[in-house]
Amino acid sequence: MPGFIGIHLGAGKHSEALWQEYKKLCCKACNKGYSLLASGATALETVTDVIAVLENSPLTNAGYGSNLTWDGHVECDASVMDGCTLHYGAVGAVPGVKNPVKLAHHICKKQSCNALALGRVPPSLLVGNGARKWAEQAELTTVHSRRLISDKALKQYHHYKKKVERYQIHTDKILTPLDTVGAVCVDAYGDVAAACSSGGLALKHPGRVGQAATYGCGCWASNGTSHVPSVATCTSGCGEYLVRTMLAREAALEVQKNSCSVTGLHKVMKTKFMESPFLHGVEEKIGGLILLKCFPNDETGEFVWTHSSKTMCVSYMSDAERRPTIRMSHLSSGDTPRSTVVVEGVAFKLHPLAVRPDTSIYS
Q1: Are 345 and 304 in contact (CB under 8 A)?
Q2: Residues annotated as part of the active site
């Protein structure tokens, strides 16, 4: 009955000393996702709960352990997209929410309502304290902002802030190893979904919103047809560059029309990101993404990833392999992050589609 779950722990420069910890976290997240799919959970529910697992780990820059703002606070971005309904929900620069992705999911589900009281349109993106208030009203877990600060993040904050104050260097030269975390999924009913979450760049300006909360930039998901494949994507890297290029949506559209996912992904990374006129003058174009492409009726799919960063950690689990596969993707020796793109991937098989118990919400 299950489908496929794929995740990433960011495009950046991962510590080799933490490799075993990364593997444990990937296994935990993928096993959680596969268990949910086996119980009949939807793709949207699955990616939300998988990202929540990643947010709860101090290894990632999402939720607990996020990078601190210049003022020493945690402000998180997150978004989800349902490929079946094409509904989208996001939060930006939200303080004190334990799992920002669950708040984004709650907002996304509200899109199914025609209107709020007096004909008001449900929001798709909430930021700051307004987002936190929505979380409180939805009875999601909120905490004091200090409880989201890990020892590692606090140490990095003091280290980098002293450097900036002493040497007046630019903050874009001190990116921490990890950025956005993301997940893509196809469920037993053939629906796809995507989700992402991020604490943002180190020492970011308070109130800054990155790609993880921006439509078409952090994640994208769209069910296909008999002739067009379903696609779900998630990005990672420098948020400002991913916002300018709308990389999540651009990659999805390109791969949907290209018969070869690897070729299509390489093309979009080269022409829409590395050579994009919107990034003219940018020296180090650090970005990456994971992408799921499938034809549910044919019971086949592909999971591909790409990055221009030094490393990108990805993991996935499918029907054929009942244990997660974890891979640390590297640039080749001698390649530089500013000029080289890595594209890799795997094919997977799906079980025959299950019969949806209730189709009313998808009509």
Answers
A1: yes
A2: 180
